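tokens incoming
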């Protein structure tokens, strides 16, 4: 009986994965048939549907925004959440429209990137670098844009549970020169990339169930990502925070900020110090425009769910 139930659950999971994959691919076909403006309007309606009707993680989103911004009213929290869900939907449709981005001109029509600091610090791109970012703005688009306009990157990603969707997402991520490596292969490959003068990109704002380091994120105890700091100090390369913000005309702006490592060496204490430095930069973006961050992920689930004294 147990074996029969296991097979039935596996069958249901397989069918569910296939339906999800087909839905995402179908949405991609629709998104690529529309103009950019039309796709954004459809994305906003989709975001509102998930927020208001489906209610996906709605209580958690409201609660975490409220804990981070205790001064905000319930109406203000709801308004932020509305834009959060819309932003997630816009990001999804933007990624599904990646095949329409064919050259530098197509990228420049969507994103502005001032890479002067990158070229200067990396000796005109000859030296390797670590790029830290967050699930903020359109993080997938800024990665593709950087790869096309500045320099191709190797991006560390987590494997999605739906293998079909995972494979399709990675195909989209690598359409224009970037590479991906799964996090369980990142140590050796990441050091190799940096040693060869490449750029290693890491998202460092989500909860890590395997982390043993804790600190403060937006005023509450949470796991801390030391991986980018480890790579930068171990390989002795510069570290940048790269963030993607939406601007008024529906386009995006990519901003790069070097994080100072001149006073640090490759040791446990300095790795923690560097991690704190780039975390503070990401926090500043989130506090300034909270609607652009991915609040649907519970960043604090592996830390003590309480505010820290600051």
């Amino acid at each position: 009986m147990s074996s029969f139930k296991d097979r039935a659950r596996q069958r249901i999971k397989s069918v569910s994965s296939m339906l999800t994959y087909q839905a995402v691919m179908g949405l991609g076909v629709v998104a690529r048939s529309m103009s950019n403006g039309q796709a954004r309007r459809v994305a906003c309606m989709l975001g509102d549907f998930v927020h208001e009707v489906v209610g996906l993680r709605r209580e958690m989103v409201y609660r975490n925004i409220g804990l981070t911004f205790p001064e905000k009213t319930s109406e203000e929290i709801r308004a932020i959440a509305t834009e959060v869900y819309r932003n997630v939907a816009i990001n999804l449709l933007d990624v599904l429209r990646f095949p329409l981005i064919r050259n530098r001109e197509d990228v420049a029509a969507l994103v502005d990137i001032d890479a002067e600091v990158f070229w200067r610090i990396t000796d005109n791109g000859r030296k390797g670098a670590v790029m830290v970012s967050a699930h903020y703005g359109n993080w997938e688009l800024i990665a593709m844009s950087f790869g096309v306009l500045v320099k191709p990157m190797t991006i560390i990603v987590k494997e999605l549970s739906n293998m079909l969707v995972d494979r399709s997402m990675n195909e989209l991520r690598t359409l224009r020169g970037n590479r991906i490596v799964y996090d369980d292969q990142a140590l050796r490959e990441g050091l190799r990339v940096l040693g060869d003068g490449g750029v290693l990109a890491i998202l460092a704002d989500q909860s890590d169930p395997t982390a043993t380091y804790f600190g403060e994120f937006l005023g509450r105890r949470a796991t801390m990502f030391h991986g980018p700091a480890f790579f930068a100090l171990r390989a002795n390369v510069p570290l940048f925070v790269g963030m993607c913000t939406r601007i008024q005309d529906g386009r995006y702006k990519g901003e790069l900020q070097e994080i100072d490592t001149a006073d640090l060496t490759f040791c446990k204490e300095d790795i923690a110090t560097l991690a704190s430095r780039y975390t503070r930069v990401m926090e500043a973006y989130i506090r300034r425009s909270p609607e652009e961050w991915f609040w649907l992920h519970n960043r604090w689930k592996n830390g003590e769910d309480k505010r820290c004294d600051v």
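note: The longest helix spans residues 2-32.
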